[in-house]
Amino acid sequence: MCTRMLDFFHTTLGVPEAQVAELSQGTINATIGMTGSCYLNLRPRAPYVAWMTLRNMRKPDHTDPEGGRYHRLDGFDEEVWRSADDSFLTRIGTWEGMIAIDDKIAATSSIPLKMTDAKVRDTITFLIATTRELQ
What we know:
Helix content: 10-25%
Structural class: alpha+beta
Mean pLDDT: 87
Oligomer: single chain
Distance between the termini: 14 Å
Shape: globular
Radius of gyration: 14 Å
Number of helices: 3
Order of helices and strands: HEEEEEEEHH
């Protein structure tokens, strides 16, 4: 999971300094059992530039996320929601995937990341593909 996330940040989003700050699986290449999280920063002990969490909910849940924090997005081949702070959530089968990118921190990269509509679409596509792979 973290290897995929790093590759996505380096190649698709163009953030060369992205590095793993914290992960829940023990090693960068560990497989995910019931849940996994990966946090990236731009330099050691710096604030997180992004995080992603994947978890098995044990049964399919395609209801809208509670609390009104997220709103549904159309135009994707899976259900996707977006929050006001630009985190994204998808539910595929029994798996839920969430990703968030702090664009204020990402803008401090040597190649500043601007979350354009195309980059948002790339991020959602990445989240869907990563979550779908766990099915």
